[in-house]
Design a protein that fits this description.
The protein is built from 1 helix and 8 strands, in the order αββββββββ. It has 158 residues and is an all-beta fold. The longest helix has 4 residues, at 41-44.
């Protein structure tokens, strides 16, 4: 019989425990704050071209290739685009600036607008994740903003 095999190894010696610290460690520095969703103060002050449609879902009957298509990356500030949101819906957004390196074709897109037509929230997207309304040279009209409630009627004079 061989003496080599299971049960022949001895357990490792116990590691020495480090002594407790004499003073409390200095408090950790606060992590730098992440930038706000809006890219910059200049972007936040922009007047949007399509504030009434930003964030709205596209029409239910719209079809890719017929009513909208993938972006070719030729986008500029103020262009109305369609992007897929985290819930899977396709919604309108507006390009507010380009971002990243020139060959990346990345854009900051306004996804939420304030009632007065300013940028509330943006999201960085690559052109390959954006859709445009212009298909085959025929421009699809931008949807109209939802109608506001009619003003209350004044009571008839007595």
């Amino acid at each position: 019989a061989s003496s080599f095999g299971f049960g022949s190894a001895k357990p490792a010696p116990q590691a020495a425990q480090p002594p407790p610290p004499k003073t409390a460690p200095p408090p950790a520095k606060a992590a730098p704050q992440a930038p706000t969703p809006a890219a910059s103060k200049a972007v936040e002050s922009l007047s949007l071209s399509f504030p009434g449609v930003i964030g709205n879902e596209i029409e239910p009957g719209w079809v890719e290739g017929k009513d909208f298509k993938k972006s070719d990356g030729n986008l500029a500030q103020g262009d109305l685009v369609i992007l897929k949101r985290s819930d899977g819906s396709l919604r309108f957004g507006e390009v507010v600036e380009s971002t990243g390196l020139p060959w990346q074709q990345a854009f900051m897109v306004c996804v939420v607008a304030t009632p007065d037509g300013k940028v509330e929230s943006t999201r960085a997207e690559t052109a390959s994740n954006l859709f445009v309304l212009n298909v085959g040279g025929a421009s699809v009209a931008a949807p109209a903003a939802p109608a506001a409630a009619p003003p209350a009627k004044a009571p008839a004079p007595p």
